[in-house]
Every structure is written in structure tokens, then in C-alpha cells.
Amino acid sequence: NAGVTQTPKFRVLKTGQSMTLLCAQDMNHEYMYWYRQDPGMGLRLIHYSVGEGTTAKGEVPDGYNVSRLKKQNFLLGLESAAPSQTSVYFCASHYLGRELETQYFGPGTRLLVL
Amino acid sequence: RKEVEQDPGPFNVPEGATVAFNCTYSNSASQSFFWYRQDCRKEPKLLMSVYSSGNEDGRFTAQLNRASQYISLLIRDSKLSDSATYLCVVGRDNFNKFYFGSGTKLNVKP
After folding, report:
1. Smallest Cα distance from B102 to chain A, Å
2. Is B8 within 8 Å of A94 when comparing Cβ atoms?
3. Which pLDDT does position A42 carry in this prediction?
4. Following CA atoms B101, A47, B45, A8 in sequence, which dihedral angle do they give, to the nearest 10 degrees?
5. B8/A contact by beta carbon, under 8 A
């Protein structure tokens, strides 16, 4: 099993450009999450999904959109990138119903917005 | 107020030392508790879940105090390989959401 994978690993954008980050998991997990990590801030939840076709807002959703058309994929979109979105983005998945089971993370995507 | 608060450190300790980290959480409805380890520029990885009765995994011991809303992690006989950032994590809302502390950095020196 590959676990959780993320594409791309690194990207540089100019302000106003758009892009999509792809997260894929092969563990048949119901729950998937997108976080951003900034220095001194810890991981903050952007959006999450409790199953195929569903999404919900997290702590810092502004400027991002998501889609979960297939159970194994969770896409994070930036429609018009801003320098404040420079961050490391982590995707995670979680198995529904096992409350002491926790999240499995992808390796991260480093995004620089100029 | 942050959901989860940790001392950022760094904690600089010699090999073989015992070191303890604490973490406090603000929401009494929190349902699950974890310690994660994160190496520089890598993804977080689960170190251990924290159970109400406390639990131990080798050199690592985790405790939960629901009344005071804090979680602790004790590392005995520190190794150089323990150098990392330790993240305190709490889950709630029927396990839909997880809240992360900003991490405590540990440096174990020879």
C-alpha cells in the first residue's frame, strides 16, 4: 500500500494564479482532511470530507475549495493564490468508526506564492 | 484562545535524560488524544494514543487528566533519534475534527 500520497511535492505560483493539489489514499478510508502548517501555528484544518461526495469547512477555509468525487481522492483548489497561502499543505485520511485510530498523513506539498 | 497549547521549547537534553512535555486543551468535549512526532520537513506520524488510564509504550509514557484538561508525555532514557518536534493532538465532534498544538521541539545531545 502506498498510504497517502500528495501531488505535487513543491510548487511556486505567482499571485492570482490557480492550482489544484491532489491527495490520494489507498486504505479505503472514509474521512479525508486538508491542513496547512505555518511556523509557530501548528496544523490548521482547511476542509475535510466524511465520505465520497461530501465536504465541510474547517478552521481556515477562506480562499480554498475542495472536491471529493471519488472516495480515494481529495482535491484542494486555490482559485486565486495569495502570498498568505504560502505554506506546507498536508493531506490526511482516517478510518470511520474507530475512535482511537488516528490520521495518516501524506508527505506534504510545499507551496510558495510570490 | 488556542484549542491546544504547548510549550514550544526547545528542550535541550543529554542522551539518557528523562524529559516531560505537557499540553493543555480548551474544550472539555474533546474525545480523543494523541501525541505525534514530526521530523524536520516531514509529515507528522503517530507516536501514541493517550488513554484515560494512562499508557506506556517502551520508553514513552502518556497521561491524560480530563479534570485539568492536560496531557503529558514522558520520555525516559532519551536517544539522539528522539530529536524531533512533538505535537499534541485532540479530537472531537464525533471524531470529525482534530486540533493540533504547535509542537514542542526536543534536541537530544550526545
Report:
1. 4
2. no
3. 84
4. -130
5. yes
